């Protein structure tokens, strides 16, 4: 697996440090509230797990699975709900936890959906942001790292369902895609 990585973009230590900072910011922002934290599967699962451990206000958690990419590296623009939430969101302060925002299509769809279900507020924390890929105008409320327009893997992010368990963020060697 490590042999397929061309370059480590963000180390495990850098990620852990940034996640702590985001946790502190969110703990301040949600002081006195009991947000519903929604993990967007599968990519955000490792970030979610690390993040909730450094949030000091009581949170509830739910999980949602959407798919927009399949096994390719570019967005199809079609968002499909694979697994919906288990709990109602009306009246709740919702925090969406995303792995990465590229085109913004997945997220704009999710925000719209949760607003239509009458959430009291909808905010977004994303660990990675690729502003160069945006096709809809959208910004996260909290962002871990702004990264260049490259396809990254690791720390939950996959290529064809692999590499999610790398503890760092890397770029794949070009020959991996042509396999
Ligand atoms: P968007 O709808 O913003 O274009 O894409 C959002 C989703 O596409 C992310 O949640 C992630 O699953 C996938 N994605 C976008 N960019 C990358 C990337 O650089 N690497 C990986 N592994 N997935 C990405
Ligand atoms: Mg995602
Ligand atoms: Mg993926």
TrEMBL record:
Gene3D superfamilies: 3.40.50.2020. Its main location: cytoplasm. It catalyses: GMP + diphosphate = guanine + 5-phospho-alpha-D-ribose 1-diphosphate; IMP + diphosphate = hypoxanthine + 5-phospho-alpha-D-ribose 1-diphosphate. Its cofactor is Mg(2+). CDD domains: PRTases_typeI. It comes from the Bacteria. Keywords: Cytoplasm, Glycosyltransferase, Ligase, Magnesium, Metal-binding, Nucleotide-binding, Purine salvage, Transferase. The keyword Transmembrane does not apply. NCBIfam families: HGPRTase. Belongs to the purine/pyrimidine phosphoribosyltransferase family. Purine salvage pathway enzyme that catalyzes the transfer of the ribosyl-5-phosphate group from 5-phospho-alpha-D-ribose 1-diphosphate (PRPP) to the N9 position of the 6-oxopurines hypoxanthine and guanine to form the corresponding ribonucleotides IMP (inosine 5'-monophosphate) and GMP (guanosine 5'-monophosphate), with the release of PPi. This is Hypoxanthine phosphoribosyltransferase. It comes from Paenibacillus forsythiae.
